[in-house]
Amino acid sequence: MKKRLADSSVNTNIYDAEYANREVNFIDVNFHPFPRDQSTGIRSSQNCDVRFCPRELRETILEIISYHFHLHPLLPNDNNQYLTENDIWLLSVREMYGFCVTNDLKNVWAYMWMNWYEKRHWMLWARAANPDRIGLFKTTMLIEAHWKVIKRD
């Protein structure tokens, strides 16, 4: 993730804003990297915003993703509420999407949706994807990584 955010090249994958809007209705179909040609209505990569992710926002994005990774239906959130798997997914999508809209990060949002926050991808990395139990392997890896840092320091 750090490597991709630091890379200034524009992703060649095609982001489908209409599909994203069908999946999550608060996603604006007009918030995408490639604008529509007003005369034809066809998306064009010409005259697009080629900026990917400013350096000063990269750490914040990683913190948001880390927070989303740790949410789980068996653990209360910051407001001491227990959320369902779908509620956690929608909350995560809304937060990342809102951050990208606020900072006009169209390319970052397209990348995040296509590779991390679309439901079928989110199910692969989020702890909340398995609502009945907290994954032992992810927890073990986190603890081992934490102790590695402590030992090194």
Helix-strand blueprint:
Elements: H1 2-6, H2 17-23, H3 55-70, H4 85-102, H5 106-117, H6 119-125, H7 136-152
Helix pairs in contact: 3-4, 4-5, 5-6
Task: Walk me through what this model shows.
With 153 residues, the chain is mainly α. It has one domain (2-152). The chain is built from seven helices and no strands. The protein has helices spanning 2-6, 17-23, 55-70, 85-102, 106-117, 119-125, 136-152. Helix 3 packs antiparallel against helix 4, helix 4 (85-102) packs antiparallel against helix 5 (106-117) and helix 5 (106-117) crosses helix 6. It is globular. Residues 36-49 have low confidence and may be disordered.
- State the domain count: 1
**Biggest sheet statistics:** none
Total E-strand runs: 0
Low-pLDDT ranges: 36-49
Structural class: mainly alpha
Q: Which range best describes the helical content: under 10%, 10-25%, 25-40%, 40-55%, 55-70% or over 70%? A: 40-55%
Q: What's the order of the H and E elements? A: HHHHHHH
Mean of residue pLDDT values: 82
Straight-line N-to-C gap: 24 Å
Q: Please state roughly what percent of the residues sit in beta strands, choosing from under 5%, 5-15%, 15-25%, 25-35%, 35-45% or over 45%.
A: under 5%
Per the principal axes of the C-alpha atoms, what is the gross shape? globular
How many DSSP helices? Answer: 7
Rg result: 17 Å
